[in-house]
Write a structure and sequence with these properties.
The protein is α+β, with helices and mostly antiparallel strands and 278 residues long. It contains ten helices and nine strands. The strands form two sheets. A six-stranded mixed β-sheet has the order 5-4-9-8-7-6. Strands 1-2-3 form a three-stranded antiparallel β-sheet, with no helix packed on it. The termini are far apart. The C terminus is likely disordered.
Length: 278
């Protein structure tokens, strides 16, 4: 780095003329706000000017976004600069938000019958203990909305779910008051609320295992089963058609002409031939 010394100003007074300490080389530097801040040793102003030149957001806009609840990473992404350039302006605003959250924890929740005696912090701790949760696991935060009032957020984890509750904080005497803004916030300050914030559906009981014999019988593949043999029926006796015909058709009668005449007993005694002839 070369060392320069100031030898004067330009004719129009907009530049500072410097000369190399070891040679006759001369340099001109713009006499802008950055040079003035650097000459005074005002690093805060110098960084602010740099942000204004490099970022699409001014320092006041950066702080306004942080105060409204935005994170440093979100503002840095919007401004198109590194996070480190936003942190110097965000730090005092983050302290302001933290202070507002602490004041809200000492405020009194408002129920249907009016403000409670216990503070919001004590009330929430009791609700967490009743549900088997750790009050120390709650993350407190606050930010300002457009109407100038503070919104307080409580965030905690129960099992695998992330839960949030929001209150409106109104500063005042004896610590001020907080009013619930959503169902989760109302459940935390409701003294008659006894069920868990995230009820779990009951699990159906498991059925007992089937007997091994029944299991094998129902689960065995078809190819492992032995084929069921039906009883063999003996064939019924077949009656010859000739026999059936002889039984059903009556025998023909013999004609009397072909039948020989048999004498009766009287004919034998009297010597008379049957038929009335001697």
């Amino acid at each position: 780095m070369r060392e320069l010394k100031v030898i004067g100003l330009s004719v129009d007074g907009k530049r500072v003329i410097c000369q190399d300490a070891n040679s006759a080389d001369k340099f001109a530097i713009d006499a802008d706000d950055r040079l003035r801040a650097a000459a005074r040793g005002d690093l805060s102003r110098l960084g602010q000017i740099q942000i204004e030149m490099e970022s699409s957001l001014r320092p006041r806009e950066i702080q306004a976004r942080i105060r409204a609840g935005a994170t440093v990473e979100q503002v840095a992404s919007t401004a198109g600069v590194d996070v480190s350039r936003i942190e110097r302006f965000a730090h005092p605003v983050l302290l302001e938000r933290q202070r507002a959250a602490q004041m809200a924890s000492a405020a009194h929740p408002v129920r249907n019958d009016g403000p409670t005696v216990n503070t919001l912090s004590d009330t929430v701790a009791g609700a967490m203990f009743a549900r088997g949760l750790d009050p120390d696991g709650i993350e407190w935060d606050a930010w300002k909305v457009e109407d100038g009032r503070w919104t307080v957020q409580l965030q905690w984890r129960a099992g695998r779910s992330d839960n949030k509750a929001h209150y409106r904080f109104t500063p005042g005497a004896h610590g001020g008051t907080v009013t619930a803004l959503d169902d989760s916030a109302r459940e935390l300050i409701d003294p008659t609320f006894t069920r868990s914030l995230r009820p779990v559906a009951p699990v159906a009981p498991l059925l007992p295992d089937p007997e091994p014999e029944l299991f094998n019988e129902h689960r065995a593949p078809q190819r492992d089963r032995e084929p069921v043999r039906e009883p063999v029926r003996e064939p019924e006796p077949v009656v010859a058609h000739e026999q059936a015909d002889t039984q059903s058709v009556p025998a023909p009668r013999r004609s009397r002409r072909n039948k020989p005449a048999v004498p009766t007993w009287e004919d034998v005694l009297l010597g008379v031939r049957s038929g009335g002839q001697n």
